[in-house]
Specification:
The protein is mostly beta strands. It has no helices and eleven strands. The strands form two sheets. Strands 2, 4, 5, 6, 9, 10 and 11 form a seven-stranded mixed β-sheet that branches. A four-stranded antiparallel β-sheet has the order 1-3-8-7, with no helix packed on it. It is globular, with a radius of gyration of 13 Å. The mean pLDDT is 96.
């Protein structure tokens, strides 16, 4: 089972951009669809984006469509989430998740393979 580690979180000014990454160890990420979720304080975990095995299809929640882009590099065993036009409402802990199904989309929340999260804080 792969282990996932997120990185790249931090503070960003309102309207700015940030790229966070999910790196895998203990296995190859190419065998998994990968998704990003976030959780703000006092709220439940919310689906943001997913990319299928092989990268042929992506899926975004309406809240981030057009602002966030998910991509994968199976040679480097990583998946990235590039975020733009950030607002304070994007402040949350961001988690990546891996799922062996080809393209489960939001259903990958059912997967047990999660990273530990990376904090993103947006303020003016």
């Amino acid at each position: 089972q792969v282990q996932l580690v997120e990185s790249g979180g931090g503070w960003v000014q309102t309207g700015g951009s940030l790229r966070i990454s999910c790196a895998a160890s203990g296995g190859t990420l190419r065998n998994y669809a990968v998704g990003w979720f976030r959780q703000a304080p006092g709220q439940g975990r919310k689906f943001l984006a997913s990319i299928s095995r092989g990268g042929g299809s992506t899926y975004y929640s309406d809240s981030v469509k057009g602002r966030f882009t998910i991509s994968r590099n199976d040679f480097e065993n990583t998946v990235a989430l590039t975020m733009s036009d950030l607002t304070p409402e994007d402040t949350a802990t961001y988690y990546c998740v891996a799922d062996p199904r080809p393209a489960p989309g939001p259903l990958m929340e059912e997967s047990p393979m999660w990273g530990q999260g990376t904090q993103v804080t947006v303020s003016s």
